[in-house]
Amino acid sequence: MFSMYAAIVKNLRGVIAFEVHDREFIKGIEWLSKRFKYRNIGIGPRLAKKTGKLVKGFIGKPLRVLTYPVKDIEALIELLIDRANMDPILIEALVLSSTYISPLMIISEKYVELMDKIAVHKVKVRGSLDISSWKLHMRIADYSILDSYEELVVESMKVIEGKVDVGSILKLRHERILRDEKRYWRFKDLEGNEWTFLYYVDNLRLLIRLGLSP
Q1: Under a CB-based contact definition with an 8 Å cutoff, are residues 127 and 191 in contact?
Q2: pLDDT range class, residue 121, cuts 50, 70, 90
Q3: Between the CA of residue 93 and those of 17, 65, 96, 195, what are the distances in Å?
Q4: What is the per-residue pLDDT across 6-59, written as a single tens digit (0 to 9) for each?
Q5: Handedness of CA 195, 197, 202, 208 (dihedral sign)
Q6: How buried is residue 49: exposed, middle or buried, by Cβ count under 10 Å (0-12/13-18/19+)?
């Protein structure tokens, strides 16, 4: 499946997650389709199977069903589902968004509430964004992940190998997040009702919270 991973990852704008019983997700997918006409959006195999015919018309454009590039990814997802008191769909999406080096796009209110609980930091915005602003800031979110991904992987490997203290790494990551937030400086000029544009989730911290030693 690694060949499929390599074929998909380059043109992926993000990975989608939604609560199946919230039928408003169809509007969310249509909304994303209009804004990212030439980029794919990934959907986890568990979610794709559960929604079936409901998303069939979106498969191929813009949705691409993601694969587990190596068996260890699937094993990690199953372990987290077994140990964590979280929705399996959201767990799979969190792992796959990291695997595919892409932002996770949440289009269900239930998952927004869950993300609010596990996020280590949030980017707030006021009012509404026009299409060009959405596209710009989704690209910025992409760059944020790409720019830090290698460093995050190296840090995680050092923690696993016992070469560094996990507490110091978590502190370093939080400081990096505060610097990264400055990429969204354009939001400061907006007015209106406040809402969360972006959640920062540290999967390493999440594993520790779940009692899973790296």
Answers
A1: yes
A2: very high
A3: 6, 12, 5, 22
A4: 888 888 989 999 988 777 888 888 888 887 777 899 999 999 999 888 888 888
A5: positive
A6: exposed
Q: Is the dihedral of CA 134, 136, 140, 146 positive or negative?
A: positive
Single-letter residue type at 149: Y
Write out the two tokens for 131.
């299409």
Cα 124 to Cα 155: distance, rounded to the nearest angstrom = 28
Instruction: Locate 79 and state its tokens.
Output: 């372990």
Q: What does the pLDDT read at residue 78?
A: 94
DSSP label of 19: -
The answer to whether 31 and 6 are in contact (CB under 8 A) is no
Question: Which of 94-98, 130-134, 187-191 is predicted most confidently?
Answer: 94-98
Q: 116 in the Ramachandran plot: left (φ > 0), alpha (ψ -120 to 50) or beta?
A: alpha
pTM: 0.91
Rounded Cα distance, 73 and 79, in Å: 10
CB atoms within 10 A of CB 133: 14
3-state secondary structure of 41: strand
